[in-house]
Amino acid sequence: MARTAKAKKPLVLVERDGPVTTIIINRPEVRNCVDQPTGMALVRAFLGFEADPDATVAVFWGNGGAFCSGGDLKALSSTDGRQWTEDMRFNEDGNGNLPPGPLGPSRLQLSKPVIAAVAGPAVAGGMELAIWCDLRVMEEDAYFGVYCRRWGVPLIDGGTVRLPRLVGMGRALDIIMTGRKVPAKEALAIGMCDRVVPRGKSRQAAEALAQEIARFPRECMLADRNSAHRAWGKPTREAMREEYWFGQSCLKNEGVAGATRFTKGKGRHGDYKDI
Length: 275
What we know:
By secondary structure, this protein is an alpha/beta fold.
């Protein structure tokens, strides 16, 4: 009797709850380290979220108690580094689009927010994926760290660019050059994460935060979020001009209606429930 082929376990899972999409690395047996197939599956998942008109906020989580332990060093060793060098070169196409990053979505510039739900380790490239997100919710025993410092593997998924913007150059260089562990309590104190929650609650807390954000007038929330991202590296006057330019349409489309609701008694005295 012929044996039935066993179905392969999906590397990445996507779950939806109304306006919130949760994208899950599903390699718990290797602490959710990312090889090339997993990275490409993550890219497809996040591009699917970006294209979904009903999706407003994404949560990024790792199955099995680890966010992501970085790149798959066994895969890197077996290919002499080609998968992270030749295959993922930083070459723009004719439209200014970039190829995927070594760990997948790290070069994507999405128009909608992503919240990292961090349990256990988010180290090396896993740290880079976490700080690629807009916000980070960490469990109390979770931690960051440039653990790849030990092996001569550099940060090439945006870590040296994004970390100084989060915590300042001095703190960033301390973390980058020493490769030391950054526990959740310290990460919160220096601005490397935004919320710390009990063990086992990062996904639940991140999804609740995502639902809270998603309930606000969407065009306005996205315009403000994207203005903050676009402002980096621009002179103040130019950044403020763009802020005003992109804010005009949502002021007309959503702000006037919101002001009318306020005048009729909604949301008084800072009430966020009745809006």
